[in-house]
Design brief:
- By secondary structure, the protein is of the alpha/beta class.
- The chain has one domain: 3-Layer(aba) Sandwich (Rossmann fold), CATH 3.40.50.
- It has helices at residues 13-19, 23-39, 55-60, 74-82, 95-101, 115-118, 153-159, 162-171; strands spanning 45-49, 67-71, 88-92, 107-112, 131-137, 175-179, 182-190.
- α3 (55-60) links the parallel β1 and β2.
- S-adenosylmethionine binds at residues 8, 50-52, 55, 70-73, 76, 94-95, 112-114, 117-118, 148.
Length: 192
């Protein structure tokens, strides 16, 4: 079957960036940037799973040694690839398939609001030579607001059980706490 996963929630690259550009998102991004500066080892490459429109790249570009952005949505990956961004490469692929098919060592691996789609099984393929940072939702989405793309909605809903995600992450050695001191999000980290 042809891969028709072009857009996340039907949003074009520009629409996606527009949707997440409010003052609340700007404040959120400032906090995220600080967390990433605190946790990541900038001598190592960054693998951003579910990179979307490259939020982490643009946030950290002055510090990046090498960046790989992976996303299942082909429009975002082709737009990012066409920008010829310094020290960056992009792969259109399912995040779980990516970690299964690439030996990931001595890297920083990010899941920014993407673990609920990719699934916690991905952590099993990221050994302890890597630093992991995950940010995700603490609470289930309201019905209807969590659809990602036609045909995959059911699968997505099955995956989106934040309590199970959190239990899995703890059992895989990650440390969890609130993100931005709010109940709505959590951040999970595992250092080398
Ligand atoms: C909420 S967005 C977050 C994007 C970006 N990390 C950010 O913080 O702006 C979730 C992203 O995960 C991607 N995604 C969903 N399922 C995926 C999968 N199985 N493998 C890789 N990426 C996936 C979507 O296409 C979307 O870009």
């Amino acid at each position: 079957m042809e891969n028709d996963l072009k857009l996340y929630k039907g949003l074009s690259f520009e629409e996606y960036n527009q949707r997440y550009s409010s003052d609340v998102h700007k404040r959120q991004n400032e906090c995220l940037k600080q967390e990433l500066l605190d946790h990541l080892d900038f001598d190592k490459k960054i693998i951003d799973l579910g990179c979307g429109t490259g939020l982490a790249y643009f946030m950290l570009k002055d510090r990046i040694k090498e960046y790989i952005g992976v996303d299942i949505c082909s429009d975002y990956i082709s737009t990012l690839s066409s920008m010829n961004l310094e020290k960056a490469s992009f792969v259109c692929m399912d995040g779980l398939e990516y970690v299964k098919n690439n030996e990931i060592k001595h890297s920083n691996v990010l899941f920014l609001w993407s673990i609920e789609y990719i699934g916690t099984e991905a952590i099993d393929y990221i050994d302890d030579t890597n630093t992991i940072v995950i940010v995700s939702y603490n609470k289930p989405y309201l019905p209807g607001s969590g659809s990602i793309y036609e045909g995959k909605e059911k699968e997505f809903k099955k995956l989106h059980n934040p309590k199970k995600v959190q239990r899995d992450l703890k059992s895989k050695g990650l440390t969890l706490r609130k993100f931005m001191n709010e109940d709505y999000y959590f951040i999970a980290t595992r250092k080398t």
